[in-house]
Amino acid sequence: MPSVFSRLKEVASPTIGLGCMNLSHGYGSPVPESEALRALDEAFDIGYRHFDTATLYGATANERLVGKALEGKRDQILLASKCGMAIDPQLGKRVIDGRPKTIRQQCEASLKRLRTDHLDLYYLHRLDRQVPIEESVGALGRLVEEGKIRGVGLSEVSATTLHRARAEYPIAAVQSEYSMWTRNPEIALIAACREANTALVAFSPLGRGFLAGAVKDPASLEESDMRRNMPRFSAENYPRNLSLLGDFMTVASELGVTPSQLALAWLKAQGDDVIPIPGSRSVEHMRENLAAETLRLDAATVTRLNAMMTPEQVAGARYSEAQQADIDTEEFA
C-alpha cells in the first residue's frame, strides 16, 4: 500500500473513506451548510478518517465546508483534494486546465479553503489533453518537494497515462469510478496500478445510488441532478438496469446485510489496494456504509456476484458523449 495511506493502518482507521462531493455538488440542491457541517462532524465521530473533496465541487464551496468542519482534527485525518478542473466564474462552466501555473494556484487556494498547510493526497482531476501529463505531474511533484502535498494522485486516467505519469513522478493513487456495475478499471488500470504500487481509490462505489436501491425512478430526481443526463439512468435504459438488481438484492438478504454494504464488501474483496470512498448526504447512510469495513465475503459469494451486472448486461454508457470527451479511462467495446 502506498505510504500516503500508511497512516490509516497505523491508527487502525477504516480503509473506507468519505466522498464529500454529494454535500455540495452533483446530486441536486446543496445541503444547507449547518446540516452539512453536522454531517461531517458526525462522520468523524463514527470513524471516518479519509475525506475526499475537490476544487470543482460546489465551485469551491465543498472545500470551504470540509475545511470548516475538520479544523482542529487535521492531524487525525487523511485529507485529499483535486486540481485541474474548476468552475470558471466568468464563463459559468467547468474548465479543465492542467498547466503547472494553474495547478500551483489551485493548490495554494485549496490549502487556504481547507485551513491546512498541506494535503495528504492531491489529484489531477482530469487529464488536460492540451498539456503533456508529464508537465502536470511534474508540477505536482514539485508541490510534494515543497511540503504542500504528501502524495500525487490522478483521476479518471487510463493505464497508458499512468505509465507516462509515473515515469515523471511516483503516483500514490488513481481515482476512478469502480463498482459492480462500472468495471472499467478491470480492463487495464488495476493491473497498471499494481505494477506501480499505486492505490485505486474507487469513487461512486454504490453506482451513484443504483446499487443501494435508492433510485426507483430517475424522473423523480431534481433537475440539477447529474444522473438525469447519464445514459444508464435514461427512461430507455433504466428499467433494464433495474431488472439486474433482483439477484443482487437476494444475496444481500441471504447474508443479512444492506445492498450498500454488499456492494462495498465486493469492492474490498478485489484487493487491499482498492479503497472505496462512498459519498452520502445522510449520516445514517454514512454509518451504514462504514459498517461494511468488517464485512468479508467468501470466494463463492464473490464469484456469484462477479457474474451479475457485467458490462454486457448493463444498459447504457456511464457518461454522455459530452462528458465522455473529458474522460481518459478505458471503455468497454
TrEMBL record:
UniProt protein name: Oxidoreductase
Key words of the record: Oxidoreductase
**Residues in NADP-dependent oxidoreductase domain copies:** 16-307
InterPro entries found in the cross-reference section:
AKR, Aldo-Keto_reductase, NAD(P)_OxRdtase_dom_sf, NADP_OxRdtase_dom
Supply the PANTHER family for this chain: AFLATOXIN B1 ALDEHYDE REDUCTASE, ALDO-KETO REDUCTASE YAKC [NADP(+)]
The transmembrane segments are none
Source organism: Litchfieldella qijiaojingensis
Task: Please give the Pfam families that the UniProt record associates with this protein.
Answer: Aldo_ket_red
Q: Does the keyword Oxidoreductase apply?
A: yes
Stored SUPFAM superfamilies: NAD(P)-linked oxidoreductase
Task: Specify the superkingdom.
Answer: Bacteria
